[in-house]
Amino acid sequence: MTPVGFAARHIGPGPDTTETMLGVLGYDSLDALIDDAVPAGIRQQQELHLPPALSEAETLAALRRFASQNQVKTQMIGQGYYPAHTPSVIQRNVLENPAWYTAYTPYQPEISQGRLEALLNFQTMVADLTGLDIANASLLDEPSAVAEAVLLMRRANKAQTGARILVDADIFPQTRLVLAGRAEAAGIALEFFDAAQGLPEGEICGLVLQQPGNSGAVVDHSGLISEAKERGALVTVATDLLACTLITPPGEQGADIAVGSSQRFGVPLFFGGPHAAFIAVRSGLQRQLPGRLVGVSQDAEGRTAYRLALQTREQHIRRERATSNICTAQALLAVVAGMYGVYHGPEGLRRIAERVHTQARGLAEAIKAAGGTLVTESFFDTVQMRLETFEEAERIIAGAEAVGVNLRRVDETTVGISTDETTTSRELYLVAYALGLVDRPSRAPELFDEVILDGDFAYPDSLARTSEYMTHPIFHTVRSETQMMRYLRRLADRDLALDRTMIPLGSCTMKLNAATEMQAISWPEFASIHPYAPEHQTQGWRELIVDLEDRLAEITGYVAVSVQPNAGSQGEYAGLLAIRQYHLSRGDDARTVCLIPASAHGTNASSAVLAGLQVVVVATAEDGTIDLEDLDEKIAAHPDQIAAIMITYPSTHGVYESDVREVCHRVHEAGGQVYIDGANLNALVGLAQPGEFGGDVSHLNLHKTFCIPHGGGGPGVGPVAVAEHLVDFLPTEDSGLTGAAPVAGAPYGSAGVLPISWAYLALMGAEGLTKATAHALLGANYISRRLAEHFPTLYTGENGLVAHECILDLRELTKESGITAEDVCKRLIDYGFHAPTLAFPVAGTLMVEPTESEDLVEIERFIEAMVAIRAEIQEVIDGKLEAHESPLRHAPHPAVVVIADDWDRAYSREEAAFPVSGLQQDKYFPPVSRIDGAHGDRHLVCSCPPPEAFEL
Ligand SMILES: *Cc1c(COP(=O)(O)O)cnc(C)c1O
């Protein structure tokens, strides 16, 4: 028997069921379906040139070969990235557990209570540690979080919006580069200054400080902060959560905003990411917070429940007026960091911090004792030593590497050493040897023991933290591994993720995240590599990344790809910046108009604004396509000003527009560039290439089409792909040297999850990938057809077919019955399903995307649920019950409601909980009833509620 190739594992339907499904659609082959569905004008002429598919075993072996070319060293480079121990119980039960990593963003709060609690723990921990009132559920990385803080200060400080932002020169170099790029694009004036010299004269909108600084320095900023505030500025401090356990936190120093990375709370280095950045603000600024915010609200019976708060700030509603373009963030990593805090508690974190500090002190004392020069004597975990000559510094770095330790090359004559949770006395001794403080690497480490015993701190007493933090019981009750394992299981059981049900979310492409694809990410040869480790130690990473970029270029029909953007939104921003820079390089300064169809994803408009462009909306025609007449009018109204059009293909309406070439042509004629949002690439891979049918630049979502799991709202990777003429404007590893500003702190963004997408491509090969696309089309068209008489599909393309998703139009039914699309989403929970995409891109509709990974049994289970729900709607239409009496309106039904003694509903308990027979064996009960979102926004609470809040 020939072994089954991976494609057959990835694709749900087998040959027989494929035939059945095709039969329903009236086709006798997938090829015939594709020929009818995909416009001939955009079909790619040749098969993809990709290496032949590998088996799962061969793929793992190939990943091992990449891994073996990376060198695992003791990473003491610091600079925002510090080794940490991921507690095994968290690694196994969160990072490697599909119940956590395959979950979607918690927009449906009733099926997301577990991850919402985990994120609320994170928010509470961050707010406490930074000494501020409210924190969000994560941002993308520290440098972009600083940029978000600067934008926030400008928004909030209306009186001095136009004034400059002062930035501490002692800020990480990667932050400086990312921030400079973002500020330039947004037209914000930055001035870097030496904080030791005091604040420069003149009006200031905001001040950015870093504590501990890039030099490692821990400085009392209170004077500077109060002066800045007296002068009308807002103040942001970039900080380190571990340092905050010992040092007076930013909030207590008077800062309005704190940002930073939570990486060292149990998250591997991952060659630079994914790591959860955080942002915390004092109260009064919470409505300005970018990203997602978990809040406390209540359900229909008044039970305490969690939900995302202030959702009206989301880009879909605010569009070009959105506070930021962040959509996918770093939820899974925030969960890990939060659980690290839960497991260690405040006393455990403090112990870790004291040890880290004591080790750094030991090193500093030894350097001083040997007559060495320190850059600063007030530090937390980072000691910098100034040498006489360039050669001496070189010798030390090389000597340390020779004994297995990476130190930081700060500048010509400065060497930096950062200690961390994993640092051992033996490693300190090796460093001392490399620094020439001891003559042999093998002596017993009593040198450090002395200092370790004295218990003093290297920073001024006035900066010693005295306030409590993490006082909530959750940070005090989970100490044994059994408790932790069960806590993680309990939370996971409250949620629906891909490990239990299809998640038919249009535009989000919730497909299989195969175990083999996930394997490599926690191998130390990938996970324990510092993003700034010397190039010769990271050959495996580089080869994997180049190979991945090449394959993505081949798939998209572009010439170059950068994987640096760490979410789709960041890819959009990078792509639009490339367009803007291209126009500027040709002296085309006036090209600042970005055309965006009315139906576009909300991030498109907000990214355009961040890239310094002006959004002009293009209307949608009756049939859902771009209105060509309106396009012509908008082009004519802005002569020589069109920078770009941003289109999604297939359109967000789930159809292949046959005149896409014409749209591209007209924009090119007008001198504009074409940005094709590639989030829907699952409908194109192997069949059509955006770089070929008219695009100049696209971003892809590796966490959609290319199998990186959604993680409950991140991580993501949003590579940006460009045509030849834009290559010079791509953010790359050398950004900052080449001119294109980097969009993430780490050279390859969220590198740590790239092996997932690489593995997917290696496993599938050209044929498998193309087949997956065909099956994505088959599944969507099958559902559309089977549901047609119950819920009509709003838009279809050629031959009445859709692409990889279909929009079910409920607006007529809502008019007749009062039952809304949201009611249907909530009722689907009772049937054990995660809802489709609600109200995007058309209000009153549901967008369904089954993906190729769902087999026919699961698809039929979904159809059965939808048909049963349609019958429930009919009962309301027929007047058998009022909408407000219907199970649809009361959905979802938690066990506590269904089993309660008093039951006075117009339908039976059985109808409530077991509306179809298949549920009798496998039943998911949501932990809460429908959640009242507005209540939570009126009474905004975004930290862990006291245990009594859960008593009814
Ligand atoms: C998901 C999506 C985006 C944004 O991607 P993120 O990774 O969430 O930032 C942009 N455009 C479309 C059409 C999308 O579906």
Automatic annotation (TrEMBL):
* Domain of life, source organism: Bacteria
Q: Which GO-annotated molecular functions does the record name?
A: glycine dehydrogenase (decarboxylating) activity
Output the InterPro entries linked to this UniProt entry: GcvP, GDC-P_C, GDC-P_N, GDC_P, PyrdxlP-dep_Trfase, PyrdxlP-dep_Trfase_major, PyrdxlP-dep_Trfase_small
Key words, A-Z = Oxidoreductase, Pyridoxal phosphate
Glycine cleavage system P-protein N-terminal domain location? 9-431, 471-731
Q: What is its EC number?
A: 1.4.4.2
A Pfam family it matches? GcvP2_C
Q: What does this protein do?
A: The glycine cleavage system catalyzes the degradation of glycine. The P protein binds the alpha-amino group of glycine through its pyridoxal phosphate cofactor; CO(2) is released and the remaining methylamine moiety is then transferred to the lipoamide cofactor of the H protein.
Give the protein name, as stated in the record. Answer: Glycine dehydrogenase (decarboxylating)
| UniProt organism field | Nesterenkonia flava
